[in-house]
Amino acid sequence: MSNSPLYHLIWSSRPLMQRAEALVEQRLTGTGLTVRMRAVLEILARDGDCPVPELARRLEIQRQYVQVMVNETIAAGYAEKRDNPRHKASPLICLTDRGQKLIADVLAGEARVVARMSEALAADDIETAVAVVDRLLGLMDDEIEKRP
Amino acid sequence: MSNSPLYHLIWSSRPLMQRAEALVEQRLTGTGLTVRMRAVLEILARDGDCPVPELARRLEIQRQYVQVMVNETIAAGYAEKRDNPRHKASPLICLTDRGQKLIADVLAGEARVVARMSEALAADDIETAVAVVDRLLGLMDDEIEKRP
DNA sequence: GGCATATTGACAAGCAGCATGTCATAATGA
DNA sequence: TCATTATGACATGCTGCTTGTCAATATGCC
Fold first, then answer.
1. How many Å is the Cα radius of gyration of chain A?
2. Residue A7 burial (CB < 10 Å; 0-12/13-18/19+)?
3. For strand B92-95 and strand A92-95, is the pairing parallel, antiparallel, or unpaired?
4. Nearest residue on chain B to A109, judged by CA atoms?
5. Is the model's pLDDT at A148 over the cut of 60?
């Protein structure tokens, strides 16, 4: 039913996501980055250099499309290819200095916004919410697997 | 930062939504309904008959596209047009008996799944999570409005 | 009643964000 | 050494939506 709190929580995910994406996009205006490039740079900054197929796995997107995203990012000068000791035909994608600085700035700015919003909420309530949502994700996976 | 609980919560919204949509879609197989039709029928069942532009406002989608969704739903026999006393050129979209029964079944089935998952979680933790997310939506709106 | 303005349904076109298919060229593992 | 797999590149298609346009009303205001 629509008056179940859990039902409400589940369908809050859509507006939540829309606002998150809107915020990210808004903060990107003027930086020269697109949302797609930001996604690539974020992974590289967080997890370090990696080849395209590995990026695709982390982003859970088809490697063919990630390739396009990466090519754009390289063309914009925020990333570059380097020899991959583990696979000669699949170069590592690495941040350039410009890319490094830019993504650090962007992520820091986002972190400031999140920190500001965190202050308006009780820390342990946030923890509870995270725990509920994480459990919920597992429960939904179970329901989905019930009839494949 | 990526280790902030609130950051984690915000980006849980995407997988949450994906799973919610996957579940809805899965439960629709064999009913003759598409996800789009379900969306239309859900509003009609919840809020009562209304004309297309009003549906569009509630769904927050362009009316031109909602019109397509509604036409499909009518063609499938789950809804029909009736005279609108408030606006002669814009008929009310109403559930047919078939549509009424079907959407009630679908929503009841979904409610059963949600109820099952609710049992695995503490009721007051769910309430806390809902409260956090609702507050968060407001906070994000504020952040977005800061520079339009 | 008469007229400017807004609303509606219908249709067409376009676009972003993917998925899918294919292929040549390596690279890898047995 | 040879079958298998991985990779980059390119083309094509799809879905879900937006945008634009238009004629036909309908409505609000005088």
1. 19
2. buried
3. unpaired
4. B1
5. no
Please state the pTM of the whole predicted model. 0.89
A12:B137 CB<8 A: yes
Please tell me the distance from the alpha carbon of residue A26 to that of residue B148, in angstroms, as a whole number.
Answer: 8
Tell me: the pLDDT tens digits for B112-148?
A: 999 999 999 999 999 999 999 999 999 999 999 886 5
> Is residue B93 a contact partner of residue B55, using CB atoms and an 8 Å limit?
yes
Chain B residues with CB-CB distance to A117 below 8 A: 6, 136, 139-140, 143
CA atoms within 13 A on the CB side of B137: 15
Residues A23-28, mean pLDDT to the nearest whole number: 93
Task: Report the alpha-carbon angle B26-B30-B35, nearest 5.
Answer: 50
Q: In terms of Cα–Cα distance, which of A37, A31, A51, A35 is closest to A93?
A: A51
Question: Are B53 and B63 contacting, i.e. CB atoms less than 8 angstroms apart?
Answer: yes
- Per DSSP, the residues of B24-92 read HHHHHTTTT--HHHHHHHHHHHHH--B-HHHHHHHHTS-HHHHHHHHHHHHHTTSEEEE--TT-TTSPE
> How many other β-carbons are positioned within 10 Å of the β-carbon of residue A123?
11
Using the CB atom, is residue A94 less than 7 Å from strand D? no
A145 contacts on B by Cβ (under 8 Å): none
